[in-house]
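Sample intake sheet
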Amino acid sequence: QVQLVESGGGLVQAGGSLRLSCAASGRTFSMYTMGWFRQAPGKEREFVATISWSGANVYYADSVKGRFTISRDNAKNTVYLQMNSLKPEDTAVYYCAAPKKPYGLATMGSRNQYDYWGQGTQVTVSS
């Protein structure tokens, strides 16, 4: 059974940084594209970033490009989201996600392309 567990969220001032982690288990991690999404109160869950199974290709939402960096360590079965220059509008619950099919493209930016989700970690950015 695939399990995804996020950590690293918290409260930070605008302009600050946080690094989120997502530990995966239950299958061969290195075969799967991984994604980060977020959901703010009263809004739909939106795409943040994805990384291909090898780590060679990444894809970002325009709203985070240049500020966030997605990476992975296949030896540790973990994907990361480094968030810099945080803004109050980045406040949301952040979710890690994985698809059922292996070797997906890094451009998998739709929620419908993902089958497994973590429980989420809260990120709050104060102004």
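Comment: The longest strand covers residues 18-25. The mean pLDDT is 96.
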